[in-house]
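Hi everyone,

Forwarding the result from last night's run.
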Amino acid sequence: MKLFKSKLSTAAAILLMAVGILIGTQIQNVFSGDNIYEQIEKFKDVLSLADKYYVDNVDTQKLVDAAINGLLGQLDPHSVYIPAKDVRQISEDFRGSFDGVGIEYDVVNDTLLVVSPIAGGPSELVGIQAGDKIIAIDSKSAVGITRDEVQKKLRGPKGTKVTVTVVRAGLDKPLEFEIIRDKIPLYSVTASFIVNGEVGYVYVNRFSETTGKELEDALAKLKAQGMKELVLDLRDNPGGLLDQAVNVASDFLPKGKTIVYTKGRIPESNEYFTSSGGSYNKIPLIVLANGGSASASEIVTGAIQDLDRGLVVGETTFGKGLVQRQFSLDDGSAVRITIARYYTPSGRLIQRPYGKNRAKYFMEPMEVDSSEKSGANLEHTLESDSGRPVFKTADGRKVYGGGGITPDYIVKMGKVPGFIYQFQVKRIFLEYVDNHVSQHQDKIRKEYGSAENFNREFQVTDKLLDEIYSRAEKAGIKITREEYDKNTKYVSMLLKAQIARNIWGNDGWYRVVLTLDNQFQKAVTLFPEAKQIAGLE
């Protein structure tokens, strides 16, 4: 019996070894099907040879980073390598918060200027005000500080302390504030208010972890204020988290409607996302979009258009229909790799062709497309010669895939006077408001009472316009008085908007800016068409 057991064990061992060898061979075949191990060995050989024989000392980390970038560059424009130093910043953007003191700031003439304290943040709680100039941080001079240094010095773990010394207009002596750092929200809903008594306006700047909740809060506020129609502004929104795009779209759709679905090479990449149903699925809706609207923005815009839920107004969107997953690497860096394509409810892949010229791919949607015709495009006849694949909306309207989402009403953004960009680079408006208006903030707030009243009643005088022109001349901006006088309407708007922002924040800024925003102004006239498309008449 013992001999039999011994022979059985030997036979079993030989069998297991044979099976192991066979499995190992098959696994090796699986992994070497694309010669991946051979290619890894080749790369290691080249890296070792460069390190050993190159004429100068080499930084192998830089070589590896460059090699990874080159590898991903052969895939698509959205598969990218993220160095370790950038991973934290990107994670904060998506997470929707960071630890710090809570100010919006700028560096003007080597001075750290508080543009606005973030509402409810630690700086506001201790009394920091818009227009304050921070001259020292923890008793060390902040004069000449860079933007990167600001983040290093003012951000830090929640509960830690930092002391800032500020100069404030109207006061003879600097003020000193001890601030306890806290978690600071990065808001994705930049502005939300009522226009013309019943039109709600909401601007969403990205899709982070908190976007769905932020939007629901903004809509509830506007509803309580009497909102009857809504403009959802997704212009220049580069996208973000897919699940948040689904949450946002769900606010405006009945339960069970397909919002988006994904297809990839691996089975776990294939998913359907449907609406959970929202409280605002009957409100007349217009979505504003342009060439800077990408990814998650296009998911929301595409679902609204495909399901005939509302009207899309503006310019053709970016055209990013690829889904990425981020993978962490051992040194703290990460790679973001495209794992699937996403499709709108009608089946459209909105991804544009990308080729090898990456700079051209990213810049094209931002440039004015002279071939895109303005006007009503409810049946999408303005793009009928595009040669792109044709799809149908829920009610049978024709729409096109393969090149972003073209609006139902195409309105090109009005032309900005060329010198305005120089004004912004030189911070003409920001400095003027800081130097001449900040000391009158309390008076302005008391006189007008609200951003709405200020927008309606405040007038920029000729004296103010002359002072702005004089400041531009002193800053070395080349502009003739004739050119300036032709565009004083635009100059007045931006000056007024900067004053409003300093006092009432982003709501103040956007209320004023929208008065000369031709896309928005056209959109608010199109609610009859929006109601008709959605069957709300």
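The two ends are 91 Å apart (CA to CA).

Cheers,
N.
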